[in-house]
Amino acid sequence: MTPDPTEKLRAALSRPGIESSDFDLNPETVLPEGRKLRPAGVLVPITLAGDTPRLILTKRSSALKHHPGQIAFPGGKQDDGDVDVTATALREAQEEIGLPPELPEILGHLSPHETVTSFTVTPVVAILRDTFQSIPEPGEVDEVFSVPLAHVLNPANYIIESRRWRGQKRYYYTVPFGPYYIWGATARMLRGLAARVNE
Questions:
Q1: What is the pLDDT of residues 41-57, one digit of tens each?
Q2: If we measure between CA atoms, which residue out of 9, 3, 8, 108 comes closest to residue 48?
């Protein structure tokens, strides 16, 4: 049985981190002055209910306007009724995957990540010690799945790839696992977690 990673994660999150963005690998990108970023929170749920710690992720519906079919953390933009981004992440996780809000044990936060869609996303890292029945939100989530935590915490598993976007070549991180192509903002935030844990 794999050792409980809770204390290692807690220690990593207590160390200062570096803010990241979708533009990290594209330093020539000129961001507009005075741009307004909307706050968002995502949950990074790590389940310890099985023999091996695993990270829970979602595959977004292919019918969505933004990021259709992509791999993502449960989460979204902060609403007026949310007291903070942690509350946002917990509310969205309940809506998107049916996670009871009292189940996650919050360990800490990663540094904010700026997205091309003008959000500043705060990843909220949490441990789940008990199982729950995932319920994908119809129309938003096609699949709820998990990958071994060790896979995403290993910096050697990250690959830099590129594609053309809006007429320019853009570089981004990927951390594929089996049939799941984890890339973009999700992979970049996970890369940040891997860097913190391996300091």
A1: 999 999 999 899 999 99
A2: 3
